[in-house]
Design a protein that fits this description.
Number of helices: 14
Radius of gyration: 22 Å
Number of strands: 18
Helix content: 25-40%
CATH topology of the largest domain: Aspartate Aminotransferase, domain 2
Number of domains: 2
Oligomer: single chain
Length: about 450
């Protein structure tokens, strides 16, 4: 017989968590339960009462801190009206208002919002929209069915987003299920190709793209890219000007541009959308994670009017976008998202970031001098520390050594939670983090790596 939650012992919870909960991206035979019971601001508290500074925004999604009173209140107020309304042929005021806010905030030209419930779904939607657009626009181009993507890119775990992705370690098992894409090397500014200097990197990588477009543009529906930073690849920072160049080339060769801002959007790079930093307007824009402040599952794919019009027609023409999720545009998530956008304005979140970005940069520069560190890199409030076996040759530690994971486990003993990407320590705290809390993270990393 089930007991009340308050009677469940920490031992029971740990056993059930280890034996009955199947965790994502986790080897369950090695899993040691770590159970968070509550949170406030930038701090997490586990079932034993121990507190940890949330240095990765609960997987890159928390924006204004946990239990922000304004976001809490918005969800409660929406719950008193209606918790769920399907987006299949009907709507609700909260979701409509959110769509309008996103259109107002997004790069110019993105006038139409399709809601889903995760970043992977938002990318899946964009891929299908891009494909269908070329099949049924006023002057169809049915031969344009292929996609260009970057090596080591991560766009989610549905089959379409996995096909676009390029992280073999995660997805090689599913290769027989995936469609083929045209793949370009990641525009990495740390591990540059032989003979290519940092000043030459942007032109070099854009030259590779142009060569591919010259040969294949007649077959390509779209290019999918994470603007400025390739997240799960290890926080690979693109050369300045690369994104702008990609937009110019895709427009010149009549290829749609899909910007996956699931991780880099919502203020992470210092502007609301990463595309703003290079004055780029994509044809399709994917947002998720921080859109609800990290509260509830919600995602959106924004599209241009040109794409939207290709889906308009009579019922019997079958031009409808036959895609949708039960919880797409859920009113509770939409309420949290509107409140999140309100807090951005009222607390002047973006205006307060420069001083925080500089404080994070100060710590990263100090950490970069340590012998164990090959590189530190930063874009806005996204920081990364790459651990290497040899600083001079940039030789990485073998994956099986779990070097990044070991460091993060030690950091938990210092009261800081970070989650690594292989050998790369990711520092991506809530945007509401204080300078003292940034110091705590930076000093803890330095202490552990010293």
């Amino acid at each position: 017989m089930s007991r009340e939650n308050s009677e469940d012992s920490p031992e029971d919870l740990a056993r059930w968590d280890r034996e009955e909960v199947w965790h994502a991206f986790t080897q369950m035979s090695e899993y040691t339960p770590w159970i968070i019971e509550s949170a406030q601001g930038c701090w997490l508290t586990d079932i034993h009462g121990r507190r940890y500074l949330d240095g990765v925004s609960s997987l890159w999604c928390n924006v204004h801190g946990h239990r922000h009173p304004q976001v809490d209140r918005a969800v409660r107020e929406q719950l008193e009206r209606v918790a769920h309304v399907t987006s299949l042929g009907m709507s609700n005021p909260t979701t409509i208002r959110l769509a309008h806010r996103l259109v107002e905030l997004s790069p110019v030209g993105l006038q139409h919002v399709f809601f889903s419930d995760s970043g992977a779904s938002a990318v899946e939607v964009a891929v299908k929209m891009a494909f269908q657009y070329w099949q049924q626009r006023s002057e169809p181009r049915p031969e344009k069915t292929r996609f260009i993507a970057l090596d080591q890119a991560y766009h989610g775990d549905t089959l379409g987003s996995v096909s676009i992705g390029g992280v073999a370690r995660f997805h090689e098992m599913f290769r027989p299920l995936l469609f083929d894409v045209l793949r370009l090397p990641a525009p990495d500014t740390y591990r540059l190709p032989p003979g290519v200097s940092a000043d030459e990197a942007c032109d070099y990588y854009l030259g590779q793209l142009e060569a591919m477009l010259k040969e294949h543009h007649g077959q390509v529906a779209a290019m999918v890219i994470e603007p400025l930073v390739q997240g799960a690849a290890g926080m690979i920072m693109q050369p300045r000007g690369f994104l702008r160049g990609v937009r110019e080339l895709t427009r010149r060769y009549e290829v749609l541009l899909v910007a996956d801002e699931v991780a880099v959007g919502m203020g992470r790079t210092g502007t609301m959308f990463a595309c703003e930093q290079e004055d780029v307007s994509p044809d399709l824009l994917c947002v998720a994670k921080g859109i609800t402040g990290g509260y509830l599952p919600l995602a959106a794919t924004l599209a241009t009017t040109e794409i939207w019009r290709a889906f308009l027609g009579r019922y019997d023409e079958y031009k409808t976008f036959f895609h949708g999720h039960t919880y797409g545009g859920n009113p509770l998530g939409a309420a949290a998202a509107i409140a999140t956008l309100d807090v951005f304005e009222q607390e002047k979140t973006l205006e307060q970031l420069p001083i925080k970005m500089e404080r994070l940069a100060l710590h990263l520069r100090r950490i970069a001098e340590l012998p164990a560190v090959g590189d530190t890199r930063q874009c806005g409030m996204i920081g990364a520390v790459e651990l290497v076996r040899d600083k001079g040759t940039k030789e990485p530690h073998p994956w099986h050594e779990r070097r990044g994971m070991q460091v993060c486990e030690t950091l938990r003993g210092e009261g800081v939670w970070l989650r690594p990407l292989g050998n790369v320590l990711v520092v991506m705290p809530p945007l509401s983090i204080s300078l003292d809390e940034i110091d705590l993270i930076g000093n803890a990393i330095h202490k552990v790596l010293l």
